[in-house]
Amino acid sequence: MGVTLIPVGFLKEYTAGQDRLELAAGLTVAEMLEMVGIPPALVAVVMRDGELVSKDYQPQEGQTIKVIAIMGGG
Amino acid sequence: MRLYADSARCSGCRACLVACSLHLFGENNPKKAALAIVSHFPTPGTFEVRVCTQCGDCAAACPVDAIHQNEKGAYYVEPEGCTLCMACVDACPEGVVFTRPDVDYVWECDLCGECVEVCGPGVLWIAD
Amino acid sequence: MNGYGGHILRVNLSNGTITKEPTPAEVVRGYLGGRGLGAYLLWTEVPQGADPLGPDNKLFISTGPLSGTLFPGAGKMDFATKSPLTGGYAGASMGGMLTAEIKYAGYDSIILEGISPKPVYLYIDDDTVELRHAEAYWGMGSFALEKKLKDELGEEFQIATIGPAGENLIKYACINHDFGRQAGRGGVGTVMGAKKLKAIAVRGSGGIPIANVAEFTRVAKEAYRACKEAEGFEAWTRYGTMIITSWCDENGALPTRNFQSGSFEQGPNIYAPVFRDKIVVTDKGCFGCPTPCGKYSYSKKHDIYVEGPEYETNGMLGSDLGIGDIEDIARANQLCDELGLDTISTGGAIAWAMECYEKGILDREQTGGLDLRFGNAEAVFPLIERIARRKGWLGNLLAEGVKRAAAEVGQGSEKWAVHVKGMEQSAYDTHDATSMLLAYMTTDVGAHHNRAWAITYDIAVGRDKVTPEKAAKVIELQHIRPLMDCLGCCRLQWVELGLSLDYYAPAMTALTGVEYSWDDLLHISERVWNLTRMIWVREVEGFGREWDAPPPRFVEEPAVGGVTDGKFTPPEAAQQMLDFYYQQRGWRKNGIPTRETLGRLGLAELVGA
Fold this sequence. Notes:
The structure holds 3 protein chains of 3 kinds.
Chain A: E1 3-7, E2 21-23, H1 29-36, E3 45-48, E4 51-53, E5 64-68
Parallel strand pairs in A: 1-5
Antiparallel strand pairs in A: 1-2, 3-4, 3-5
Chain B: E1 2-5, H1 15-25, E2 36-40, E3 46-50, H2 57-61, E4 67-69, E5 75-77, H3 87-91, H4 114-118, E6 124-127
Antiparallel strand pairs in B: 1-6, 2-3, 4-5
Chain C: E1 7-12, E2 18-22, H1 25-31, H2 34-45, E3 59-63, E4 77-82, E5 89-94, H3 98-105, E6 107-113, E7 120-125, E8 128-133, H4 142-153, E9 158-161, H5 164-167, E10 175-177, E11 181-183, H6 188-194, E12 197-203, H7 213-229, H8 233-239, H9 245-250, H10 272-279, E13 280-284, E14 294-299, E15 304-307, H11 311-316, H12 326-339, H13 343-358, H14 377-389, H15 392-398, H16 402-409, E16 419-420, E17 423-424, H17 434-442, H18 455-461, H19 468-487, H20 492-497, H21 504-512, H22 518-539, H23 552-556, H24 571-585, H25 595-600, H26 604-607
Parallel strand pairs in C: 1-6, 7-12
Antiparallel strand pairs in C: 1-2, 3-4, 3-6, 4-5, 7-8, 9-10, 9-12, 10-11, 13-14, 14-15, 16-17
Helix pairs in contact in C: 1-2, 2-19, 2-22, 7-21, 12-14, 14-15, 17-19, 17-24, 19-22, 19-24
């Protein structure tokens, strides 16, 4: 089962274009990012199944985590 | 089959109206659509979407039998038969039978689904 | 003309004459519409040296070809004028519904000339165009007047207004529309107030002609689907731009206490989830937008409705003032909206005054009795009112903008007047983000972020790096983002949701019947960029490199606390970034476009190079 990590948009540049990574559960989001090579500072939004969570959140088996960088504001 | 609208999700963008007019008339003109958005601002600050429920009151009211159902079961007005008497416009409980001076018949929703396709917040859907 | 309203409406407010002229095809071919058309008209019609508040300045209200069509974000328009705040080019973008309505009435631009002897409003109902008495409305707030005019004229009318701030010629007065949208920056509302034009009411019943309906519809529907399927769709549409508050705070970009820091200890109280839970009532979008960023809110604490706050206002009327209560920020936002003030400049001016007060440079008598400490929301609400009405010494001073205020007060306060070219900086602290600092230095209206937003890029490649690649990135963004302003659509579908840029040229080709490639569109955008630069060259004596100078705060003083604690950008680094920028833009070291660059962009004849 594990956890599915979805890097969105520009963050895919750090995962060789992969937009879906399957990882083992047991790490926080921040640790997952370090592991796959996405600088945590670039991640602005973390969504777990449609809900906003922080980078300290530890996903459980079967959950999907979307990580999003901000490219603009205003 | 009919169109449904969850007004609470509507953000008032009107893309549905433009998609509708392009389908019905081949024109980019939201004033020629077959559904309506009513804005309630500044208070309470909500949008209300009115859609055809396919109730059939328009057909019942038509004195010249110009309103029938298409293959999807949607009521539609035959342009050639319409006399612009406005009975259907008055009879419609949702206020979604339309006409205007530059069109010589009334029109209503034909269940094409274009509005559903362009609605971002998912206000609209077609079901039984 | 496919894709266009077809006419330019010229309204002479001095003598009341109103004329309709066909939109010149060769002009829109070269400048598209919106910001491009506004810049072209500003250059050609406003005489050099015009007083921004005088009869020779004009306000150009321009829709774009995509405005009002079936396209994601087709709800934007441009207000262009000579800025009373900066003395140079002002181009303010506004969303909502008005741009579509103006297109349906058949107009690509509305040119407001002269000065009306009495307050009037402009009434447009397709071909019927009238100037109507507005004395009874003079003094009204923007929501109040919009509601009144909709009740009087009909709900179908789209309304734009100025509030008391525009009437009282506050230098950063805005134009309001749709109960929560503004043309905010540079004093476009001030010019409207100087012309005694209180409101514009528009109803249009026509359609927009499309060259290839089937193809345009096909491209448009694909673009809508792509927006709805975007991975970031949910997060973005639920929170709007407020979603970036926490990230900015974590990364030292959230302006805190007049940009003394980029992190705010009360930050979590004003992050997006708190905002959504506490006050948001409805998602509210602009014309044609499937990804509504607007959040219409109700504050129980203050019993007010407001569309907002969005990120900029959250920063400039929140953390930048040391205020960490989302309902207080909403109230300050609502006051600015109703009175017709740009929230960014208002926040920047008040933050400067707060720092002066805390440093003992302004005393309680000068503040009119207000305890103007950072964090004191109860002092901010009355001060906003006083600015809008030029009441009291401080209100009147701040009404002039932070650059003039600091010049008047002196005592070193120029050092913490955070502006570029006289426009107060928007809500990104740039102590340690050299691309973003360069963006603020070179944006063509002053210190505004809408032309280029590069903070993620800075963090990705190294915040303090000084490289030609960084300058290239800023230039690239300065061509893409304002292109949307020329097209009359929003940039946020691309910026925030990653909507492919590949949709825009095919949409324009199918709409207008003119073959556009993406490179064609970018070339036009670069042309407009250089034209607005030349407007500054023409209007400001001695304009050049010094006017691109960064605010002293970021190049002389380290940030205090947070992730960027102790950091600042050495002035030589900022100047080096400028060198790289000018080189790549084809401008001379003094910041003026070369004759060769102007020639390449087809501007030589227009600007007399």
